[in-house]
Amino acid sequence: MSDQTIDTLLDEERRFPPPPAFAAQANVHADVYDRPFEEFWEANGRERVSWFQPFGELCRWQPPYAQWYLGGKLNVAYNCVDRHVEAGLGDRVAYYWEGEPEGDRLTITYARLQRDVARMANVLGQLGVGKGTAVAIYMGMVPELPVAMLACARLGAPHTVVFGGFSADSLSDRMNDMGCEVLITQDEAWRRGGRVPLKRTADEAMAAAPGVRASVVVRRTGGEVPMTEGRDHWYHEVEASDDPATVPCAPMDSEDLLFLMYTSGTTAKPKGIVHTTAGYLVGVATTHWAIFDLKPESDVYWCAADIGWITGHSYIVYGPLCNAATSVLYEGTPDFPDKDRWWDIVERYGVTTLYTAPTAIRAHMKWGPEHAGRHDLSSLRLLGSVGEPINPEAWMWYHEHIGGERCPIVDTWWQTETGMVLITPLPGVTTTKPGSATKPFPGVRAAVLNEQGERVEQGGGYLVLERPWPAMTRGIYGDDERFRSTYWERFPGFYFAGDGARIDADGDFWLLGRVDDVMNVSGHRISTIEVESALVDHPKVAEAAVCGRSDATTGQAIVAYVTLKGNEGPSLEMLEELRNHVAHKIGAIAKPANIVFTPELPKTRSGKIMRRLLRDVAENRPLGDTTTLADASVVSELSQRAAEAP
Ligand code: ATP
Ligand code: MG
């Protein structure tokens, strides 16, 4: 038996100090950690954002609710667009937009973005959208998506962006919950050469959301779509001025609602995570500038997420634009039409900074390094990861094959609820370790607690945050009770993130996945990520997911689902080899009782492994809620394989 809240099995000894040349030119240095937290957020509040009226009080903390930059007035769209044009940066590129069909490209300068936003805001204004009108946005990665968000922000209308892969029910649920009056969508979206019928799905959703009285439809593919007279408006047909002077940026209070972002949650009702104006903007701009070492005049930054997730809100739209960055905006998938599409984009635009998720890195690992090898990736100087713990071998692959062994990697931990990155290396400062998100960002305090709520100085437990940070959520929309019980009751006085973590001897944090996924084998509390990383450490494994199933003798036994690289085929010998590899790498206790080989793992639409469903498969019980699953056929196929497995 172990008395650890979560045991530590993995011992990763590789160290990567910041390259001296990178450190010498970095935006922030080690002394940033010495700045008092109030001074840090106060100074960034003044420096990163332009105010119509300066704030008076920095932070008011009435747990579990914080307010930041009280008394200030500002406008997010003004900060992200207009002020850059006023500062003479109108010709700077805001987005290089790369459509999915090859050759479909657009270069959008800040001056053009300002006109596009003004036009969209005028169209919305004609439909009665003003301060406080809730607007839903259901689009793919087209230029009009950030334009729509910024137009809402310009008018002071809160938005909710619903990822284009979601169903009509998901869309109507969200629109009803927020009380949306207007929906912005597009005819269809491109997806791997096919068409996703966004407008048709939106019609179904609007039928179930009676509060939505108007829609704006952007033409993307030109496909035929039904339009309801009086309700639906083609964006290109509405006459509206694109002169910014015709539609001023509404002065907003610091704490006015900017947007809701729904997370799936485990129960049926999605949680509308509330983000407000000033704290959110300061938080994302500060982190984006410091963590990505942004040099706005020379960098070409690419966050390859979808804007429909919080990562896209904070690090494709609001953070980078507030910092006057030049970004790539890509409509398609990594392997269409070929598996080197991303590397072609990096080469063509001279991308300097790439921010993506472990799931994408593992997909590239599976396809092999030759696709990246065909392109000149020497423009890259910094890499980032977000969304799941990154397996050390995936980190090493990213480092070698994409980063050319010269680019620092920032493994950034955060959540929809946190709004901004909270645990991360700083690329010119931090010695990184593959698999560790290292240290809390300056001005942020994180800790690990054990079962009893006591602080763990070294070892595993529950990750908590100790004090408010500017971009933290202001709650779950319309559900105070759920907000308190989900995040604040487990450890009174702390924000409980729901993730496990351990702290090592250097004080670095290692994220261990969701605490609900932790396995209990013979009294040892084992994190899924450490066993998965041991499997991915094997040269033939591309991706692995593990979960516990009930076992009469050990409490739980570990079941692993493994995807092999390229041409490797499963065999009984391979199965034994992998079980022994895990035993050798991290200990016999973690040896999987069984391994199921599979070409795909069940993932959420945002690309995260869904271990909850793997448990259902392993226990041979009916599957829980599968609405957020990207591809439902993967699980049914898995159940089949699991039943046939040796
Ligand atoms: P839901 O809350 O609806 O179940 P979700 O938690 O996947 O969905 P997000 O807010 O997008 O939605 O993801 C946050 C979670 O992703 C974190 O709680 C953590 O589990 C994981 N995560 C994000 N970044 C990292 C990282 N760098 N390392 C480890 N885990 C990460
Ligand atoms: Mg979550």
TrEMBL record:
GO terms for molecular function: acetate-CoA ligase activity; AMP binding; ATP binding. SUPFAM superfamilies: Acetyl-CoA synthetase-like. CDD domains: ACS. Residues 88-476 form the AMP-dependent synthetase/ligase domain. Residues 38-80 form the Acetyl-coenzyme A synthetase N-terminal domain. Residues 530-608 form the AMP-binding enzyme C-terminal domain. Belongs to the ATP-dependent AMP-binding enzyme family. This is Acetate--CoA ligase.
